[in-house]
Design goal:
The complex is a heterodimer of chains A (261) and B (87).
Chain A lengths: L3 E6 L7 H14 L4 E5 L7 H5 L9 H5 L5 H4 L1 E2 L6 E4 L12 H12 L4 E5 L6 H8 L3 E6 L3 H16 L6 E7 L1 H6 L5 H8 L3 E6 L3 H8 L10 H13 L7 H12 L4
Parallel strand pairs in A: 1-5, 1-6, 2-4, 2-5, 6-7, 7-8
Antiparallel strand pairs in A: 3-4
Helix pairs in contact in A: 1-11, 5-6
Chain B lengths: L2 H5 L5 H18 L3 H16 L10 E7 L2 E7 L12
Antiparallel strand pairs in B: 1-2
Classes of the chains: A alpha/beta (261), B alpha+beta (87).
Chain lengths: 261, 87
């Protein structure tokens, strides 16, 4: 096996990185892929609770890096799927416990274990961010259709390009179509014009995201919600399928009807 | 934006979001502040004026966005030279 290592990052906090990693992880695993999700937010771990695996933690990322356990011992198996694993972050340490070269080594080791490694980056552009992208083959920049999130996303895209990691792909989260129609929210096209990178997915604002995290059961486990479907589409695009962008098409149709474009 | 806003012609908020973002992104990406751009414009006018006659009030220097790259666009109108007929 040679896994693809994908890092989800954003600059700004609270845009939905952790939710995205959990849901894309579940969606890929539901497609029969072997997936390892890695929580890169050392000191502020959360991927464990979003995935509902918090009471199964024995070892964490820093234990692996400092040699207190073997890689496989730190991989918590999510039993709801045949091949989904989580490596949690250490909670009592900070970002300086890990270096970018540690992460490159960890990613190389993980590549032999699975099909996909999904890394949840911490917010910010400091050490934790550099650690999270160090071993990545592909970087997903996540943003919300909101001025501060888009600005931070642009900054992060610039930093990723400066590190010669290629141009990242965009996931626009929490899009509210009704607000876009009212002219009170940046549309998918607006954000694409501003950031000028390839679109990987659009996730509509959906209350069930919070319900799912309350329960520790990612939405994509049962795909009836709109946001859950959007994450399934992202997973299929990662697997190389051509999947239409439903939100984007709805929006463009609406603009054509209004004669705006 | 609701009906009342529309009645009073209040602008949709997405327009100002996009405009303001375009502005900050250009400066974030190029590290060029509006005052530095103004200084650059003055220097350019001075240099070019030494060679040709230009309409310095009509000079416009802007940063245009093309995908993820920026370019400096200068629009510098030249003054027509008045040819005096030799007497």
């Amino acid at each position: 096996m040679t896994a693809k290592v994908v890092t989800v990052t954003s600059g700004k906090g609270g845009v939905g990185k952790t939710t995205a990693v959990a849901n894309i992880g579940v969606a890929l695993a539901a497609k029969g892929q072997k997936v390892v999700c890695v929580d890169g937010d050392i000191g502020l771990r959360n991927l464990d609770v979003v995935m509902g695996l918090e009471n199964r933690i024995v070892y964490d990322l820093v234990d692996v890096i400092e040699g207190r356990c073997r890689l496989r011992q730190a991989m918590i198996h999510d039993k709801r799927l045949p091949e989904l694993y989580l490596i949690p972050a250490a909670q009592t340490r900070d970002k300086s416990a890990v270096s970018p070269s540690d992460m490159v080594r960890l990613c190389d080791e993980l590549r032999l274990e699975c099909d996909w490694v999904l890394i949840d980056s911490p917010a910010g552009i400091e050490r934790g961010f550099h650690n999270a992208i160090a071993g990545a083959d592909k970087i997903i920049v996540m943003t919300n259709p909101e001025i501060s999130a888009v600005r931070d996303a642009d900054r992060v895209i610039g930093l990723v390009e400066a590190e010669e990691k290629g141009t990242p792909e965009l996931v626009l989260n929490r899009l509210n179509l009704a607000m876009v129609r009212r002219g009170d929210m940046l549309s998918v096209d607006d954000v694409l014009d501003l950031l000028a990178i390839k679109l990987l997915g659009v996730v509509p604002e959906d209350e069930s995201v919070i319900v799912a995290s309350n329960r520790g059961a990612p939405l994509t486990l049962d795909s009836k919600s709109k946001a859950g479907q959007a994450f399934h589409h992202i997973a299929r695009r990662l697997l190389g399928e051509e999947v239409p962008f439903l939100e984007l098409e709805a929006q463009r149709l609406w603009q054509r009807l209004l004669g705006r474009k | 934006m609701n009906f009342v806003d529309r009645m009073f012609g209040r602008k949709k908020s997405v327009g100002s979001a996009k405009e303001r973002l375009q502005f900050v992104l250009i400066h974030d990406r190029t590290d060029l502040t509006p005052s530095e751009l103004e200084a650059l414009k003055d220097d350019l006018i001075e240099t070019i004026s030494r060679h040709v006659d230009i309409d310095s009030n009509a000079v416009s220097i802007t940063v245009a966005q093309e995908g993820r790259s920026q370019r400096l666009v200068a629009d510098i109108p030249l003054r027509n030279t008045i040819r005096r007929r030799p007497r």
